[in-house]
């Protein structure tokens, strides 16, 4: 288990404390993404609401998590594409390599989310093959290339778009915890992949608490990297 993973897990667990979570969230609660990210983000969220409804559910979360992995994969590929032309620029190479390291960790984290949620959905038999498997798969393919092109021309816009998606996911998980908390506390988690990943949760409530916290961490990191990319243009 590497140090970055352990640090991320410690942070995720610490954010179960409401006061610490509010303090952690505050610097980026009112962050304003660039226009193109706001436009694409609105389209993405409205499409999801149209297909899956406003109410959080296991099956909706599975679809969200299939898509949530995509930007991190796209950033990494785009970063290596840019590095092909910028190997001689050490400062930019360091920035892109650092972002790629975060992308890989976030991909693994989001993969854990979708695998564990998929097991719950399969056990409950509460999904539609078209809405919760085919549509997310097809949308992910399109989303990958949108984010890839966006990253090549405006790294900040690509990061800002993810900030908006993760903000929406964070709010949805919090809403689910508020509405279903009592039931979730009484429901155990059965997942070999969760243990393989290196995370423990005694109940679905603990599972969804930590997933919510993961999305907040990703939200903040996306905004912070967007600010860094903007500042680097002028240095």
Poorly predicted runs: none
Q: DSSP strand (E) fraction?
A: under 5%
CATH class: Mainly Alpha
Mean pLDDT: 93
The separation of the N and C termini measures 36 Å
Description:
The protein has one domain: Alternative oxidase (Ferritin), CATH 1.20.1260.140. The model has no long low-confidence stretch (mean pLDDT 93). With 235 residues, the protein is mainly α. Helix 5 runs parallel beside helix 7, helix 6 runs antiparallel to helix 10 (204-232) and helix 7 (129-153) runs antiparallel to helix 8. The radius of gyration is 18 Å and the shape is globular. It contains ten helices and no strands.
In short:
The chain is mainly α. The chain has ten helices and no strands.
Question: What keyword list fits this structure?
Answer:
mainly alpha; 235 residues; Ferritin
Which helices and strands occur, and which strands form pairs?
Elements: H1 3-14, H2 18-25, H3 35-52, H4 58-68, H5 70-86, H6 90-124, H7 129-153, H8 155-185, H9 192-197, H10 204-232
Helix pairs in contact: 3-8, 4-6, 4-7, 5-6, 5-7, 6-10, 7-8, 8-10
